[in-house]
Write a structure and sequence with these properties.
Layout lengths: L1 H12 L8 H26 L4 H17 L1 H13 L3 H60 L4 H32 L49 H27 L3 H69 L5 H35 L4 H21 L5 H34 L17 H28 L9 H24 L4
Helix pairs in contact: 1-2, 1-5, 2-3, 2-4, 3-5, 3-8, 4-5, 5-6, 5-8, 6-7, 7-8, 8-9, 8-11, 9-10, 10-11, 11-12, 12-13
């Protein structure tokens, strides 16, 4: 699909063949693009079950294409060429190419999502192995301090050095893969590849009076080490730290074989310092990947919620028009008018069902992330409200209860969009100010939105429950509309279930369950 967009874009840039008029080539290109748009929807339908995330991305790309009005712009270019207005046509073609580029970036973001996920999982695996190595080194150091027999300790130290070398090789391969994914990731800084203590040999180097190697400790990366903050540069620094730790382990092994426990402990301590520095680099990579992941997810969610909000506002407007028309006729409708109103209500019902389906897809994205509590609950309530109002519209009900439910959906979407916009501003501010460097990046540490935004959303959900409770209470008190509300008892039951879910979400936020 990405290649198809690239092909259409390249066709727009191609030099026309003399024997084929420009307008015919443009018409052909317009037809190709229309076929591409239809393919987006067909492929989205096919992937809806097996790969809902990618299906959602394809539907978002289709909606983005409609928003950019690429099809109409291409058709307009055909008309300009037919009229011989080449300058205007050329300017319009440039704008069309730019719009196609934006569409291509959106489609390529799906590959970026997989890249981020793969990188995160690989870093977590490396961190787990490194944590075991650090624990083993601390255990060996403790045994050395307690005066355990040096022979077995030297064997354990040698085995740990070999395992550290294996992890170093894995990290180096990881850094190369990161470079291959992003050729501009700072390779210009990798010319000086000297490891900490490079040139010292396996465990050698210049010896002091006591025969101990004179290398740097925790600051072994030195001024020659590239200080770029991209993921590949950090992975390379991690490898260098591990190599420095391995050399310290080999030195400790030699001192143990010489029964020089004090000097062995000094090398072991320095090895731990290097290992901890390596862990900090990996945790920083994990933090950076998480930030990228959040930025992309926020963009995807915002795009989908804006599309849902537009559709929901149209449904609300349609409901209000139908209600106003029915009130103005005051029971004097003809058979044709009644039929027309029923058909329009049925159409609005289908539109509402489509919004419910989009809410379900957005819910998949948020639940996959797993760091938010209130947003998934708000999306679930939007989905259920859409289904309820779709059912009511399906039987032609555009009364106050139906319109109130639709209005609740509009309000919910607006509030979620406001929360996402705040989160995007905060992410942008952190990136611009370079905040957060050096902090441990434990899984789930950085949530999709901050706790304050989640609490505000919980409060809004509770207020909506209160409003709906009052609405149902009034219906029961009036008694007149009960016959027209066959689902009122079921609606009250669902409201009780919603109250339980909101209470649970509030408790999860208060106890930090997702942290």
């Amino acid at each position: 699909m990405v290649l198809a967009v690239m092909a259409v874009g390249e066709s727009a840039r191609a030099v026309p063949e003399p024997q084929q008029p420009l307008q015919e080539r443009q018409e052909s290109l317009t037809t190709q693009f229309r076929d591409l748009e239809r393919s987006l929807l067909r492929l989205a339908d096919l992937l809806a079950t097996s790969d809902p995330r990618r299906a959602g991305l394809l539907r978002t790309a289709f909606e983005r294409s409609n928003d950019l009005d690429i099809d109409s712009r291409l058709a307009n270019i055909v008309g300009l060429l037919q009229e011989g207005q080449l300058i205007k046509a050329g300017a319009a073609q440039g704008a069309a190419i730019e719009n196609m580029r934006l569409l291509l970036e959106l489609l390529e973001s799906g590959d970026s999502d997989r890249r981020l996920s793969n990188t995160k999982e690989e870093v977590k695996r490396h961190l787990a192995k490194l944590a075991k190595i650090i624990a083993r080194q601390r255990d060996i150091e403790g045994s050395t301090e307690s005066g355990a027999p040096p022979g077995p300790l030297a064997e354990r130290q040698a085995k740990l050095a070999d395992d550290t070398r294996g992890l170093t090789d894995e990290i180096d391969g990881f850094a190369k893969r990161l470079d291959s994914r992003n050729p501009s990731s700072g390779k210009e800084s990798s010319g000086k590849e000297s490891s900490p203590g490079a040139g010292d040999g396996e465990a050698g180097g210049k010896a002091g009076e006591d025969g101990e190697e004179q290398t740097e400790g925790a600051g072994a990366s030195g001024s020659n080490e590239p200080q770029g903050d991209d993921e590949a540069a950090r992975a390379r620094r991690t490898g260098k730290r591990l190599e420095a730790a391995r050399k310290r382990m080999k030195q400790a092994e030699e001192r143990l074989e010489e029964s020089r426990g004090k000097q062995a402990r000094e090398n072991q301590e320095k090895a731990i310092e290097e290992l901890e520095a390596a862990r900090a680099e990996l945790e920083e990579i994990l933090r950076q990947v998480r930030e990228e992941e959040i930025e992309r997810l926020l963009v995807h969610l915002e795009t989908r919620l804006r599309s849902m909000l537009r559709a929901e506002k149209a449904v609300l407007s349609g409901c209000e028009k139908l209600a106003a028309a029915a009130a103005s006729l005051a029971g004097g409708e003809t058979g044709g008018q009644i039929r027309e109103r029923e058909l329009e209500a049925a159409r609005l019902s289908r539109e509402q069902s489509a919004v419910a389906a989009d809410a379900a897809k957005a819910l998949v994205l948020v639940r996959d992330d797993g760091s938010a509590v209130a947003i998934p609950e708000a999306l679930e309530q939007v989905r259920l409200d859409c289904l309820q109002s779709a059912s009511r519209l399906g039987r032609g009900d555009v009364g106050g209860t139906t319109r109130g439910i639709v209005q609740d959906v509009v309000t919910s979407l607006e509030e979620m969009l406001a929360a996402l916009e705040r989160a995007q501003r905060e992410q942008s501010q952190k990136r611009d100010e370079g905040q957060g460097g050096g902090r441990p990046a434990q899984p789930g540490e950085q949530p999709l939105v901050d706790k304050l935004s989640e609490l505000k959303m919980i409060r809004t959900l509770q207020m909506r429950i209160n409003t709906r409770t009052k609405r149902f209470s009034q219906l029961l008190a009036d008694g007149v509309e009960q016959a027209e509300e066959p689902e009122l008892a079921d609606a009250i039951r669902r409201l009780a279930e919603r109250q339980v879910k909101v209470e649970r979400a509030a408790r999860d936020i208060a106890t930090g369950r997702t942290e």
